[in-house]
């Protein structure tokens, strides 16, 4: 999580991208950089999750992501969305039905991992619901969960992450959904930075910056600060 002082001057990236709205927060375009973090609570525990969301807002977060792994998590979402002081993003991993439930709950955005939901029929159903609800989708690729064929052909590389993202961005575009944000996160700084550099050359969609599973708090803070700082300095985001 990145902590920002309330009076800090907003950073605006030099490299122009398209923009999308996560509820009241504009991402990309001429908008200042928005800070997002993720809850560590059980999303089914509404009160604990909201307590953490309020704490994150006080730390400077403008968007908060909650994991939605099962029906219990999904059942907690409507109350969380209704009472949250910031837009809520649903982080969906394996079960496309949780994505549908999250959209119905009124989340501001979906994060889907293309490496975990591969059935095109299920993706179509999710995309249709997202279009109907005007819900943006973040194509969130991680180094540890690549498409098997890309992993076999390209290995665990920045190129493989970018190709995975492009494959699924194309699916969304073909289905008529262009309200897209992209992330390509690796465990290490070098691969993460290279993946985002490559991605920025391929698309004009906004890029969600981060390092996946960065490690213990001190190590993770250092990795994230270096990677995100380098990319922002290059105008990528």
Secondary-structure map with pairings?
Elements: E1 19-22, E2 25-28, E3 36-38, H1 46-59, E4 63-67, H2 71-83, E5 88-92, H3 96-105, E6 109-112, H4 120-133, E7 137-142, H5 148-154, H6 158-174, E8 180-185, H7 189-202, H8 217-233
Parallel strand pairs: 3-4, 4-5, 5-6, 6-7, 7-8
Antiparallel strand pairs: 1-2
Could you explain how this protein is built, in words?
There is one protein chain. The chain is α/β, with parallel strands linked by helices and 237 residues long. It folds into 2 domains: 16-89; 113-237, Alpha-Beta Barrel (TIM Barrel), CATH 3.20.20. It contains 8 helices and 8 strands. It has helices at residues 46-59, 71-83, 96-105, 120-133, 148-154, 158-174, 189-202, 217-233, and strands at 19-22, 25-28, 36-38, 63-67, 88-92, 109-112, 137-142, 180-185. The strands form 2 sheets. It has a 6-stranded parallel sheet. Helix 1 packs across helix 2, helix 2 (71-83) packs parallel to helix 3 and helix 3 (96-105) packs parallel to helix 4. The protein is globular and about 40 Å long.
- CATH fold annotation of the largest domain: TIM Barrel
The strand count comes to 8
> How far is the N terminus from the C terminus?
16 Å
Please tell me the CATH architecture of the largest domain by its name: Alpha-Beta Barrel
CATH 4th-level superfamily of the largest domain: Dihydropteroate synthase-like
Secondary structural class: alpha/beta
Count of structural domains: 2
Listing every helix as H and every strand as E from the N terminus to the C terminus, the arrangement reads: EEEHEHEHEHEHHEHH
State the name of the first-level CATH class of the largest domain.
Alpha Beta
**Proportion of residues in extended strands:** 15-25%
Order of strands, widest sheet: 3-4-5-6-7-8
Oligomeric grouping of the chains: single chain
Mean pLDDT equals 89
DSSP helix count? Answer: 8
Percent helix, as a range, is: 40-55%
- Tell me about the largest β-sheet: 6 strands, parallel
Rg from C-alpha positions?
17 Å
């Amino acid at each position: 999580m990145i902590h920002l002082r309330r009076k800090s001057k907003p950073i605006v990236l030099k490299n122009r991208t398209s923009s999308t709205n996560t509820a009241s927060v504009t991402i990309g375009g001429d908008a200042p950089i928005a800070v997002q973090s993720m809850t560590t609570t059980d999303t089914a525990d509404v009160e604990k999750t909201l307590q953490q969301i309020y704490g994150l807002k006080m730390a400077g977060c403008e968007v908060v992501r909650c994991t939605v792994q099962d029906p219990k998590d999904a059942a907690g979402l409507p109350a969380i969305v209704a009472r949250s002081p910031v837009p809520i993003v649903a982080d969906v991993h394996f079960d496309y039905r949780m994505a549908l439930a999250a959209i119905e709950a009124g989340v501001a955005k979906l994060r889907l991992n293309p490496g975990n939901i591969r059935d095109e029929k299920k993706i179509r159903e999710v995309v249709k619901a997202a279009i109907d609800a005007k819900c943006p989708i973040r194509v969130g690729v991680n180094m540890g969960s690549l498409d098997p064929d890309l992993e076999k052909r390209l290995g665990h590389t920045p190129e493989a992450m970018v190709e995975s993202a492009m494959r699924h961005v194309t699916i969304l575009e073909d289905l008529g959904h262009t309200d897209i944000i992209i992330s390509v996160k690796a465990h290490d700084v070098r691969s993460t930075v290279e993946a985002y550099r490559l991605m920025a050359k391929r698309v004009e969609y906004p890029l969600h910056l981060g390092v996946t599973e960065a490690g213990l708090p001190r190590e993770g803070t250092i990795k994230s600060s270096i990677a995100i700082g380098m990319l922002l300095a290059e105008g990528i985001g």
